[in-house]
Every structure is written in structure tokens, then in C-alpha cells.
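Regression check, uridine-5'-diphosphate case 317:
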Amino acid sequence: METALVTGAGGFLGSHLVDRLLADGYEVWGLDNFSTGSPRNLTSARSHRTFHLLRRDLIRPGTLPKTRTIYHLASPASPPRYQADPVGTLLVNSLGTLAVLRQAARAQARVVLASTSEVYGDPEVHPQPETYWGHVNPIGPRSCYDEGKRFAEALSVAFGRTEGVDVRIARIFNTYGPRMALDDGRVVSNFIVQGLRGKPLTVQGRGDQTRSFCYVSDLVEGLRRMADAPPRRVRGPVNLGNPRGERTVAELAELICKLTGGRSEIRHIPRATDDPEHRRPDLRRARSWLGWEPRVPLAQGLEQTVREFRERLGNAP
Ligand code: UDP
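Current build output:
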């Protein structure tokens, strides 16, 4: 039986990945300290005989299970969450990544590192190819995450060079879907919660900054293809995200307002410091190395997400 360890298994992405691996017939160890993830996300996983929950902090000493693949997702990931714990964010991306890589070297496991489009900072190149080195403020409010992930990438390639560890770096762009924490603070989750409650949708600044959004099932498929690619097929970091349907935040607010009942007004609030102006992946590597690109259109993915948020909020249509 194929085996995998997922760090950050209780998070939004981690829990969808666990469900997918179990459906694919894997034995899965899911590790989480639940600092930002939730045990509730693992409710269905926990009914599987082949799922093992490891409730612990990756940066504390302890042995990790021997598996063929390690998906390393553990880290706070939304701007308000990582900014609330900047030291913890830097430590899980440095010490936590070190623990994962040492285990991979011992067990000869392959690793999929969940990196981020944030390594590009506030990009001066649009869309962003993996060859772009980025424009990051090393001491700004986002630096704990951006530099933490940049360090994790650097440590991974160092382990590749010195220990021969097979690490595949996925640079994940904005992703959304069911199970995002209601208080995650991201734009999609904020707007849906606000819309369903009939509260104003909080658009930061003029709302002309852009993002392109990938539905979670597509993203999970991309992570699976990263892990399953033959050795040496993936020869560098790979962007995973949606190159289509780039939207301004103001346009997204209008769309979500409609999908949630149209009762909300738009309220402009101050823009966050160092907020990137534009973000969209150049997807050529993912297409050519993995044969992957997202399939779910934004309106369809948002409908599914709104439906699940509605259930959680106890807010019947
Ligand atoms: N944003 C917003 N209102 C909110 C939350 C976010 O206008 O309530 C904006 C934010 O300024 C940014 C974009 O939405 O330009 C995406 O923010 P998010 O936190 O979802 O992710 P990011 O792409 O910044 O990591």
C-alpha cells in the first residue's frame, strides 16, 4: 500500500489532500498542531482505517512515520493568521522543514513542499514565471511568511544537493473552496461570510488590485501530480494556480455579493501594507511537466463554496 505523511493535515488544503489520498487507496499519517487548522476538517478522514492522526507540533522533537511521500503543508497561510504569529510562522517553515527533510533523507521519501506565490512578493513581472526571483520586503509585515517560505525552498534545494533528497517545490497561488476557516481573513472567505450575513463587503483600497483564484480540487490534483511525476521530470519550482479569470478585488466583491443574496453593500477600508498589486501564475511549467491546469470555473467553484459556508453558518438559502 502506498504511504504518505501530510503535515498541516487539519488545514483547508491539507484536509482536502488527505481525503484525496485516502480515496486513492493510500495509508495516510496526518500531522497538525491545530494552531490554524481544525480537527473538524478531518471528520471524514478519521473514519478511515488507513488514516492516523498525529496531533503534535512539527518543531518539537519526535519521530516521524516512515512513508514513501511527504507533503509538507504545515504553516499558517492567510495574511492575518501568519501576522498574528510571525515567530511561529518562521519556525515551522525553518525548523519544521528541517525535520521533514531529515526524515526524507532517512526514509528516502520524496517531498512535495507547499511553497507560495508570496515568494514573488509584490511582483514587478506579470504574470509570474518560476524564473522570476521576486520583490520581497524582508522586514515588512508579510516577511515572516515570504522569507519563511523562501528559506524553506533554499533548505530543500540544499538537501537535494547535499543529501540527494528528492524535493518538488509547489508555489501555490490563491486557492479557495469549502472548509476555509470562517475567520481566515482571506478575501474569498471574508466576502462570503459578510455576504451571507448581509454585512458590508470590506474592499481594501480602491479594489483595483488583482488576483486569480484556483478551486481546491484542482489544486489538490496539481499536488498529486507533483508527487507522482517521475524523478527528474520536475526540474525546479512549479507554479500551481489559475492563470485564467484574473479579477480585481472590486469585481470579486460584486460577484460574491450576487452569489450570497445581493443584500450587502461595498465598504472601502484601508489597504494592507505591502499588499501585492497583481498576481497571476505563468503556468507553462505545470502544463508541460505535469500536464496540469485548473478546470473549475470561478463562478462554479464559488457556488460550491458558498453552499458549504451557508451550511456551516446555519444559514439556509
Ligand atoms: N482583501 C480585501 N478585503 C478583505 C480581505 C482581503 O479587499 O476583506 C484584498 C487584499 O487587500 C488583497 C486581496 O484581497 O489585495 C487578496 O487578499 P488575501 O488575504 O485573500 O490573500 P493574498 O493574496 O493577499 O495572500
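Comparison notes: Residues 78-79, 174, 186-187, 190, 202-204, 209, 211, 249, 271-272, 275 surround uridine-5'-diphosphate (CB under 6 Å). The chain has a mean pLDDT of 97. No diff flagged against the previous build.
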